[in-house]
Specification:
about 260 residues; four-stranded antiparallel sheet; globular
Length: about 260
């Protein structure tokens, strides 16, 4: 089974749920290395929504991603991070992961000696809070690799060891599919990809969203081109540690034409 084309596979939006938003950032201020990077970030992602966060180098986008996953290198000085209304600002990274917060890294780590299937079996066990059999992990992995159009031999390769840039990014999407998070933060998933690899990654994201339409996604990117395939619900512009504008896909097209100078 090949991954569906994103042009014809827009996942249906789930009905709006009563209660707090799926994921909310309120007035978030963060220091890294003793320097203030984030200066009051406000953001709400509802279930089923895909948001794109764009900004120039040094705007604070990756700092936001690391903060949302609880990196100890990022110190929150003010504000809150909420998951379904619960304050997770001070939670450790593993606790956030178990609760359903997922981060696709800009530069995924290589783990020689640990196969993709071994890694995902352990990650699934941690996410579910119980043991996962080798058979269950492999069956689920094979099903998702078929959906994503990936070679089955990929399962036995060492995690990211010797992978191309596109393979590393597709492996991140595979992990997102397997772990079934509530909210996925994709930190520059399109970074360093050629146009063919970019389309494969975009199709993978759409395939996961088609299977899990309630998934919320925050996609951090420099470029508008991946958004041509993903059709975000909202686009946000970050400059100097703040979100200075929000809109629809047309905002991304305007950025592509005019750059960031109008917002500086």
């Amino acid at each position: 089974m090949q991954a569906s084309s994103p042009e014809t596979n827009h996942p249906p939006k789930p009905a709006a749920a009563a209660g707090p938003p799926l994921f909310e950032v309120r007035g978030l201020c963060v220091e890294a290395g003793g320097v203030e990077i984030l200066r009051g970030v406000d953001l709400v992602v509802e279930q089923g929504e895909l948001h794109a966060l764009m900004g120039p180098n040094g705007a604070g986008k990756s700092t936001l991603a690391k903060t949302l996953l609880g990196s100890p290198s990022c110190r929150v000085t003010a504000g809150e991070v909420l998951l379904r209304g619960e304050d997770v600002t001070l939670w450790a990274p593993d606790a956030r992961g178990k609760a359903g917060v997922f981060l696709a890294f800009q530069y995924p780590e290589e783990l020689p000696g640990v196969s993709v299937v071994q890694f995902l079996r352990q990650a699934l066990a941690a996410r579910r809070g119980g043991d996962v059999s080798a058979l269950e992990a492999r069956v689920s992995l094979m099903e998702w690799m078929e959906r994503l159009g990936m070679d089955p031999s990929f399962a036995n390769r060492h995690l990211n060891d010797g992978f191309s840039g596109g393979e590393k990014k597709r492996n991140e999407i595979l992990q997102m599919a397997m772990l079934e998070p509530e909210i996925a933060v994709l930190d520059e998933t399109d970074s360093g990809l050629d146009i063919d690899a970019l389309r494969l990654v975009a199709r993978g994201i759409q395939e996961v969203r088609a299977v899990r339409p309630q998934l919320g996604v925050l996609l951090i990117t420099h470029y508008q081109r991946i958004l041509e395939d993903l059709s975000p619900d909202k686009v946000h512009v970050m400059i100097d540690g703040r979100i200075v504008d929000s809109g629809g896909p047309e905002l991304a097209r305007r950025l592509e034409l005019d750059g960031y100078e109008a917002w500086r």
